[in-house]
Amino acid sequence: MPHFFLAPGAIQGDAVTITGSLASHVAGALRHRTGDRLTVVGEGGRRYRIVLTEAGPRRVRGVIVEQLSSDHPPRLRVTLAQAVLKGSHMDGVLQKATELGVHHIVPLVTRRTVVRPRDHRSSRQVARWRAIVLEAAQQSERVSIPDVDDPRPFDAWVRSNPSDDAARLLLWEREASRSLRDHLGPGPPGDRAALLVGPEGGFDPDEVDLARAAGFVPVSLGRAILRAETAGLTALTILQFAWADLGGPRTASDNAPHD
Ligand code: SAM
To answer: Which helix (H) or strand (E) holds 182?
Structure first.
């Protein structure tokens, strides 16, 4: 069962009130009725089981019957700085990176980005991207929704990127001396990592130099040239497996009985 993310202030005592698009989704599309149980996520990632006392397309109300164990904070907060890709490829990266536990997604405009977000379209596009990650976070029972930034120019973001990313990796298929495997070492150098992934046409060499000067380490993912949408997800999977909990157990409360 998906987790539903509550708007701030939706919980008052043990009463939960849901309005807007989430109410119409729950009572309309999902046809939930009074008496049904849902798992909702409140502020701070706290999860609750609620029983519905009212289920209308404009308002859904419920009562908290159980507070589920709050997930430990993520062991690794990965920022995926992904050059904007054409159409559904970008949608797929957003959806699957969310399932894989990405913390923050920064769409980048690089020299070879094919699709250049137009300002007037950009806000609509970003709203659509945010809806994709919300749906993916609900479906994958995540307790937090990744931030999705407005598209940023590559140079400005690389230069401004805060240095609190312990691991700052640029995925480069031409890197001949260092691989991601080499970089995994004994464990995460901290709890934050940034992955820079190019567009369909790859990074310009001067973009690689700029990123290197800003502290990003170019690493290879091996001999195969991967599509951009494959490369970022592959590196994210490797980091989450090696440095976080991907591939680990589900806890008992994760498997709380569902109606
Ligand atoms: N320059 C590539 C070529 O020769 O076809 C095209 C770029 S590749 C399709 C898209 C992006 O995926 C690259 O910018 C890079 O970030 C990443 N990538 C693909 N294969 C990779 C590999 N083997 N190692 C590291 N990064 C890779």
So the answer is: helix 180-184
